[in-house]
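Sample entry follows:

:::
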Amino acid sequence: MTSQPNPQVGAAVKAADRAHVFHSWSAQELIDPLAVAGAEGSYFWDYEGKRYLDFTSGLVFTNIGYQHPKVVAAIQEQAATLSTFAPAFAVEARSEAARLIAERTPGDLDKIFFTNGGAEAVENATRMARLHTGRPKILSAYRSYHGATSTAINLTGDPRRWPNDIGAAGVVHFWAPFLYRSPFHAQDERQECERALQHLEDTIAFEGPATIAAVILETIPGTAGIMTPPPGYLAGVREICDRYGIVFVLDEVMAGFGRTGKWFAADHYDVTPDLMTFAKGVNSGYVPLGGVAISAEIAETFARRPYPGGLTYSGHPLACAAAVATINVMEEEGIVEQAARIGETVLGPGLRELAERHPSVGEVRGTGVFWALELVKDRETREPLVPYNASGTDNAPMAAFGATAKAHGLWPFINMNRTHVVPPCNVTEGEAKEGLAVLDAALAIADEYTV
């Protein structure tokens, strides 16, 4: 599965990267990117020949793993047939991708607006909501990530927003439910749900319902911590939005396309939003693609009124061909069902067993192949293993945890005081157990920082 080691090529790749590539979210002189020689399935490897089990799925997008031969072949075939074409035309790959996506979205989300990724999907969803309602404000949760473009980063709740926040984007943040660190001092899920819904309704009342175009939520927040909402919460948000004429937007960029063991996370909660954003897993990230699934009512707003938005590469044929092949592969190989089974029988039980033995694990939460371990200094006080948005020496415990995992051949997804367990949706039972064994070793290091 790995190519022959070639350190000289690796050094050249690294040198060119350091000389010319400007990396996102980074102080350029303080990073040391790994030079990757290849990838297949759930693994990738470097030019030294060291192989890593990828428990990040890239950035939680390789839902069918790396280099699936059927998707690679579909991209090659499309490139040979029609490698690109302007978005104003009807193109087979684009039409078929839209049809397959619309078949799987909940309710009447049957119109698909294609973008190049998730942030652009959020940008366009919020624009549609504002135009549909004639209202300016968008409400979003503090514990959230919606993308790095102008509106999307202002909607985001995590610290990446801070240096980009213009303070005039028409965004209002509120607290969504998170029982382990409840902002509502709730004792159980029922209280957390009731108090979170009351808080949202109070926020709407004080902001002025007639000024609010949309409420946007990640169905299950991803980067912010994989907090599954308590029963009844999303249905309650739906009811509040209906009562005030507010558009309900669900962001499924990370949670969609099998990640949670359903086609969309909304399917777990029997809730249909007015707009749904997607990207990442729609074609396993093989070619950049995202989009907005649009309800009949909002689509009707633009039936005779031009929608003032578009992208040069909207519905790019190569990206759409990859989406068609990916969705078909997921159906043929039962990958959504595989994600559900692995979560229920391997990852869930395995992570909870690790939590019993490691005092650094405060909570295990998730579903499918979408899990998080909340790492703490003290289980009683729930003090995080590192401070919020820690860096440098303050982040030493998480850095040590990550270094141990990598030394043992596991590439972990680490954010603040959490490690997320997000392998490909078609990860095998053996690969999942291999990853759990490495997490066991890495958590032993994290335990050294507990009290």
User: Anything to note?
Assistant: The first strand starts at residue 36 and ends at 40. The chain has 13 helices and 16 strands.
